[in-house]
Amino acid sequence: MSTSTDNLVVLPEGKPSVRLPVARAILIGGTAAAFLDIGYAFTVWSLAGVGPEVILRAIASGVLGAPAFGGGAATAILGAVLHWLIALAMAAAYVVAGTRLPTLVRRPFVWGPLYGLVLFFIMDRIVVPLSAAPNGAPPSMAMVLGQVAAHIALVGLPIALAARHFSARSRSA
Known about the structure:
Blueprint: E1 8-10, E2 16-18, H1 20-46, H2 52-64, H3 73-100, H4 103-106, H5 108-130, H6 141-172
Antiparallel strand pairs: 1-2
Helix pairs in contact: 1-3, 1-6, 2-3, 3-6, 5-6
């Protein structure tokens, strides 16, 4: 059983830092979730004739409001960066929780999907409504179910699997 100090190393300057496997779990898990989730969005919305740049501007509208839809490439890049940072924050929350609740790391196929479900509801019911994004038409039930499934399989699970993978590597090192 590790203690909270097991996740720290001392840098040459004498300052504690997060152990590399924890940082890797966050980076890999968050990046995988971001790419899988945005890939899902690009695929689904392309069927409706909506291109990737519009989707990325929609993400940027969370901070810029409706003017984001009139933006160009810089606005789309902002949307991509915001999407990735949000995914990293989601991964960081899970990985840090996993250092305190080892079952999250030991049982990723149980807790990862549940985490993805929780993340969907937090994004859908709290984050997006409190953002500057304009209100659109309510999504269809098929769209909601697809988004829930995507958060379960493409966000929560990869984050949990990364946490387990790097946790196992740090124990064997």
